[in-house]
Recover the amino acids of this structure.
């Protein structure tokens, strides 16, 4: 911006730690540094912090505290969920069902499991990125042990019908008389959607704290009581033998503080970002030609805007917007270094040349109407400038 | 923005020589197989020197910056020199590129070779004897 202010609109990539969360974490770095597994008095304070954090997370998930496992983030939660369930049930079958628009933490884990003899079916999605629960039911076989469908997509923001998918999975499991584990990657949903695990009907759910104003390198894997699970970290007995290793206390306390705060302010925050999102979407559609909104018009995260622009390379738009003081993304942060079009945009049926032109703006608490107005005042010029340079019109 | 040098940003934000030439002597439109980005290059040749170069590119910021600086570098170059203009030299002129973006500089270098080939096809007599293959 002219006054040098930077507008951050990449909250799906990460968020800034909230001061309130930092305050909750601070004592656990050096003051309450003791190992919560130790026997002496001071360690009991750390133990208390750990127990309270677990209860705090459980209260948001409407789960039992014992079902909450603290991890190093979304990637570990997804890895552990898939590997842990697959390993535990490998005598029962080798088939895994996931959507074709999962995060790489799920996709690549499945590829790895394939090397061990598992088979993965990628469920196709419709042009909005929606998974059809009937398709899930149909794809379940007498070898299926695990279904994993993300709650909300990180690129296009599409919100999947998780509770309907869970119901379909349960119904098929009953008919086939077998146990099928239902996992959801809720990393992008936290802070925006209801995380009640019973309403969702899931056995496992992944969270990553830095997506909801918590610390990086910390997250949660919810594992419903009785779910077959083989621990992926071996060592001590921490986290009820489901995740060995001395607890990351600042991260855990920060996770709980951030999640409780996110839940407390969820309604207001959803309202806030949704208004900005709608202003942004309408503004882009009004002022720029040959654009396409990626994702579902209404079944989408309240903070997600994702557009494809014909005749523009997404990276160019990002660099130009960066020069104008706007931090945005062309998809997931991990794919911006590569020139490959996003697997999500390909899955919703975009032609390769349009898939490269995507711009993702993900809004957050601190964004304002003025921020959106500023983006809308510069973006049409950026697209026009880049298009004017293109060889074909 | 630390990812790119000031030169890359300068040429991306203020690209030189964008457009077309009336009656060009050599033309090329090529696509980077790695990513699908496309560059169109046109050159005017006076004697054995590139006297003018114009381009249009649909690509990433680096593709645009390399198109721009390459058009400056080739202008005034003798044909036998221009033949040898490498993507490495173009990248160096921009103060270097991140390793993952080196492939983007190939576009401009290849377009130049291709435009010269077009020129020689139309004017076989102008082909400098130094050129092998
Ligand atoms: C949907 C989804 N799953 C998993 C992850 C991985 O989370 P993290 O990078 O925090 O481990 C991300 C983060 O980009 C995500 O968006
Ligand atoms: S990504 Fe295609 S040229 Fe740079």
């Amino acid at each position: 911006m002219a006054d040098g202010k930077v507008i951050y609109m990449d909250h799906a990539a990460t968020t800034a730690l909230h001061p309130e969360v930092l305050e909750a974490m601070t004592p656990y770095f050096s003051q309450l540094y003791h190992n919560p597994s130790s026997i002496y008095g001071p360690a009991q304070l750390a133990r208390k912090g750990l127990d309270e954090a677990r209860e705090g997370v459980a209260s948001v998930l409407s789960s039992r505290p014992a079902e909450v496992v603290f991890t190093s983030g979304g990637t570990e939660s997804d890895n552990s969920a898939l590997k842990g369930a697959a390993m535990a049930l490998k005598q029962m079958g080798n088939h895994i069902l996931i959507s074709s628009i999962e995060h790489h933490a799920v996709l690549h884990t499945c590829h790895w499991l394939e090397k061990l003899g598992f088979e993965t079916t990628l469920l196709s999605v419709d042009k909005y990125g929606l998974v059809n629960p009937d398709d899930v039911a149909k794809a379940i076989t007498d070898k299926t042990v695990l279904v994993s469908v993300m709650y909300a997509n990180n690129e296009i923001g599409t919100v999947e019908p998780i509770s309907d998918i869970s119901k379909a999975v349960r119904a098929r499991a009953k008919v086939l008389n077998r146990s099928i584990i239902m996992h959801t990657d809720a990393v992008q949903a936290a802070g925006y959607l209801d995380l009640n695990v019973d309403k969702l009907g899931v056995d496992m759910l992944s969270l990553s704290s830095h997506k909801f104003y918590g610390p990086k390198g910390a997250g949660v894997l919810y594992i419903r009581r009785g779910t077959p699970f083989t621990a992926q970290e071996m060592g001590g007995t921490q986290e009820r033998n489901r995740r060995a290793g001395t607890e990351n206390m600042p991260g855990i306390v920060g996770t709980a503080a951030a999640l409780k705060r996110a839940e407390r302010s969820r309604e207001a925050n959803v309202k806030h970002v949704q208004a900005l999102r709608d202003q942004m979407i309408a503004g882009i559609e009004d002022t720029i030609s040959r654009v396409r909104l990626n994702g579902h018009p209404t079944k989408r995260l309240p903070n997600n805007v994702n557009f494809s622009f014909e005749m523009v390379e997404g990276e160019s738009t990002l660099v130009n917007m960066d020069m104008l003081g706007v931090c945005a993304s062309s998809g997931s942060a991990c794919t911006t270094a590569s020139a490959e079009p996003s697997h999500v945009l390909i899955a919703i049926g975009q032609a390769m040349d349009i898939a490269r032109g995507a711009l993702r703006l993900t809004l957050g608490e601190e964004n304002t109407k003025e921020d959106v107005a500023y983006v809308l005042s510069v973006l049409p010029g950026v697209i026009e400038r880049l298009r004017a340079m293109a060889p074909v019109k | 923005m630390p990812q790119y040098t000031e030169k890359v940003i300068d040429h991306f934000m203020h690209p030189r020589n964008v457009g077309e030439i009336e009656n060009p002597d050599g033309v090329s439109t090529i696509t980077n197989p790695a990513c699908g980005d496309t560059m169109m290059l046109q050159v005017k040749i006076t004697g054995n020197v590139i006297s003018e170069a114009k381009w249009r590119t649909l690509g990433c910021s680096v593709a645009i910056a390399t198109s721009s600086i390459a058009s400056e570098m080739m202008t005034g170059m003798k044909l036998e020199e221009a033949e040898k203009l490498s993507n490495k030299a173009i990248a160096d002129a921009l103060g270097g590129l991140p390793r993952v973006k080196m492939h983007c500089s190939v576009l401009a270098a290849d377009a130049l070779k291709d435009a010269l080939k077009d020129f020689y096809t139309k004017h076989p007599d102008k082909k400098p004897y130094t050129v092998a293959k």
